[in-house]
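[job 4471] stage=fold_predict status=RUNNING
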Amino acid sequence: MAAAAARGCPPAGSGDRSLAELLLEFSRAQYRAKDGGGVAAAKVERIERRCLELFGRDYRYSVIPNVHGEVCAHYPRHIVLLERDAGASRDSYESTVQVGKLQDLINRSKMARCRGRFVCPVILYKGKHICRSATLAGWGELYGRTGYNYIFSGGCDDAWADAEDISEEDSAFRNADSQLFDKVRGHDIKLLRYLSVRYICDLMVENKKVKFGLNVTSSEKVDKAQRYADFTLLSIPYPGCEFFKDYKDRDYTAEGLIFNWKQDYVDAPLNIPVSLTQSLNIDWSEYQSWDLVQQTQNYLKLLISIINSDDDSGLLVHCISGWDRTPLFISLLRLSLWADGLIHASLEPSEILYLTVAYDWFLFGHMLVDRLSKGEEIFFFCFNFLKHITSEEFSALKSQRRKSLPPGFTLEEICMLKQKDRGSTTSLSSDFSLGMESSPGAAGSFTYEAVELMPAGAQAQAAWRKSCASSPQAVLWSRAQQSEDRLPSTGMVEVKSSSSSSSTHSDNFLRIGSSPLEVPRSRLVSASDRESRLEEVRSAFLASYSRTIGLKAVPPSPSGAIGGLLEQFVRGVGLRGSSTL
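[job 4471] inference complete, writing structure tokens
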């Protein structure tokens, strides 16, 4: 185990070329740490160095060594524990996890989960760990992981671990079974608690994975002894990667594609505590009627809402084996928070794309070779889906802004300041005063001006709303959570508008200073910036994917028209993949 400053690692390549090399390697050979990477060692080492260099741009971190797969056979050979923002003061968000104790807990708990894919922190956000894993292992894997491992996997979606020769319910083995689960799952619970994980989001459409009539995995939501009762369990069933063959067969069109919830093996209903759904304005009772786009959007909104809560609790996301649906949502979370400027703030679009493809998908064991051979293109879906989450409703900044509103006003009303009053240091009207001062503690090249809005009663608020309704300006206001009777100037955020003669709407530019409650390196962005950043990532992915892997054309329609997305490649991107058209 080694603490890594991570600043001396040379990059493996640059831009599109290094991403193309990664995709080619990903599509040709299966990565496994226990096999020395399963592909050319030099290529894997180059990918690993690049990931460490990209993590080191924004974070201090330590590494848990897994060079020969001794910790987990299909986790990265260098498992990264993000500790704090690089260069941040000790007053900023920082993980309390110590890598030595974490490694000990991992070694004790890894048998608790399918294929030994233990709870692993992968994203650090506001001091909270966002983690990934497989689901809980069943009886058969715990007793016979060594001789029968992978017998029943067959490379299927989220392939399960070993089949159980004897079910958990068999009374002859009940006592020994209970003692084993108490011990192994007890270590798993200790690991979760050490990582401060409170929320566990289970993407399985089953309560337990069944093969040949036997339960081959379990899950927290059906643990008979209720060992996980102290955690907030969310059952958010999401189709496995077999379903994404339908996505490919429909010409890579997710709109209108609805999962068949009436299949015999689907027995896990959606179950979310009401307290986590009240602010989302989503009718969760309709989830079985959602198409793939709406379902993915709503689940992502839920995850963002959870990690944006006021507590310090972390989040675990898992499916069955944790290498299809799990990286889908981990990758979307990483990219969405990056697009808001909240994590990996210094990375360019091509760099965050490389990092999430290499670390979240490749090094965590996604079976791209197998999935491509079966047309189960969940990997492609993930990055093409970015076009559906560009709006502010998916932004983690949205809820933060709403928490900072002065009493009696909505965000939209705060954003409607008069053009003639913008920049005034004396007044907004007779009922408001505007105080502005430069920041004495601004970090780097950032500066900011603090805005104090002091309403003088309901009548004044109503008059202000009426007066500014005809002249909306995109001015965003935020504050640290301090005294309610006076809004402090330190650490405030202001977005200024650039005027345009051709439109009444303006582009937003953020200027932010530092305070003990902020991560200095974070770079908040406007809604328009978020959209452009995600579109850059998507475009870069489509271009590299087209050059390397390519899309498989579906059978031609009677009209002979090529598929919509393939046509987009040819006409929009201007590239042809090696296996397309």
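[job 4471] summary: The CA atoms of residues 65 and 479 lie 41 Å apart.
[job 4471] exit 0
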